[in-house]
Fold this protein.
Amino acid sequence: LLWSTAGVVTRQLQVAQGFEVTFWRSFFNAASLCVILPLWQGPGVFARLPWRRGAFWLSGLCWAVMFTAFMVALTMTGVARVLVTMALGPLLTALLARVVTGHRLPARTWVAIVAAGAGMAWMFAGQLGGAASGREWLGSLIALGVPMAAAVNWTVVQRSQAQGEPIDLVPAVLLGALISSAVTLPLAWPFQATAGDLGWLAFLGFTQLAIPCVLAVLCARVLPAAEVALLGLLEIVFGIALVWLIVGEAPRPEVLAGGTLVIGALLANELLGWRAVRRGPPAADESDVAPLGPA
């Protein structure tokens, strides 16, 4: 629910646009984590950060891409289209994990991949036919960076854990926020955000990113991966519903139709996997899903 507030809040901004929005959200996210991390893990948390580990930097870079691509896409195209595109994260993670870690995909996942691909093609068909502007089309392509980076991120984490070197995801989120802020600062200058815009962007950094990312880490420690993935899919449902009800941004028909197919395929895949895990081994089914992450 907290993750899903990005679309509604972005539509409240008066002046700030594009890279300035991304910079301030990432900046306030990093500032919030600089307070949350010591309170949660103790004052020595920053001294324990694994700065010399390549996997930690790769995970942070993935978070930076997710933060940046998500907000830039929101300023260029509809919230529903961005969120539905992000829904491909668990399936892309499954495919990448199959290549990198050798996890075999069950038949249900391959069926879901085909169905989700058809839904994405349906969703973008209107753009190819000229129903959307070039700016909206570019925004949709940029949004694809979110699930792609998420797939790399979760695969890096899974591989690291399999090698006995688990990555602490929360410090990686902080690193990603710092990278995103540094990269977008030159592009965001000169600042134009009003005081009201800064208030909304501070809300995004603290409530829409910092808090739910910490909660996601805590939940992932006690809940099965399939259950976390199911909860993560609710970001799409909540996000589309909020901008529709509060802002009045109704999704295009092709987005509703294609998005329904994508989300339906994902839900069916996760529910079947959850049932298989609850019935017993093999536990490998849990490795082919991952929370959407943040978007």
